[in-house]
Amino acid sequence: MIKDITIGQFFPGESPIHRMDPRMKLILTVAYIVMLFIANNAASLLVGVIFLLIVYPVSGISGKMVLRSVKPILPIIAITAVLNMFFIDGEVLFQLWKIRITDKGVITAVMMCARIVCLIAGTSLMTYTTSPIALTDAIERLFSPLKKIKLPVHEVAMMMTIALRFIPTLIEETDKIMSAQKARGADIESGNLVQRIRALVPILIPLFVSAFRRAEELALAMECRCYHGGEGRTRMRQLHLGKLDVVAACVTAVCLAAAILANVHIQVFVLR
Amino acid sequence: MAESILRTENLTYKYSTGTVFEKAAIQDINLEIEKGQFLGIIGHTGSGKSTLIQHFNGLLKPSSGKVYVDGEDMWANPKAIRKFRFKVGLVFQYPEYQLFEETVYKDVAFGPGNMGLSEGEVRERVHHALKLVGLPESIQEKSPFELSGGQKRRVAIAGVLAMEPEVLILDEPTAGLDPHGRDMILDLIRDYHAQRKNTVLLVSHSMEDIAKYAPKVLVMSKAGIFAYDDVKNIFDRASELERLGLSVPQVTKICRKLSELGYPVPPDIYTVEQARDCLLDLLGKGAAR
Ligand SMILES: Nc1ncnc2c1ncn2[C@@H]1O[C@H](COP(=O)(O)OP(=O)(O)OP(=O)(O)O)[C@@H](O)[C@H]1O
Ligand SMILES: [Mg+2]
Question: What residue ranges in chain A does DSSP mark as E strands?
Answer without folding.
Answer: 92-96, 99-102
